[in-house]
Amino acid sequence: MINEFTDQELDCMTDPNPIMSCDPLGDFNSPQTLEYSLLLMLIIWFVFYMVSFFIMKRMAKKYE
Predict the structure, then answer these.
(1) Alpha-carbon distance 32 to 59, whole Å?
(2) d(CA 7, CA 3)
(3) Domains of the chain by residue range
């Protein structure tokens, strides 16, 4: 976090005690929900799994 947020102006920096009030991860606004992100990761995993399955199946036919 130090590497990511060094020299960056956050809204909470105007507070007299920014260490207690700044929450960079809490201020992060993602356009996606957690469920949507997990669904996309599941789809990506399934696609790569199927692609690797078909590649292995094709390679196995060469050695028969």
Answers:
(1) 39
(2) 9
(3) 1-30, 31-64
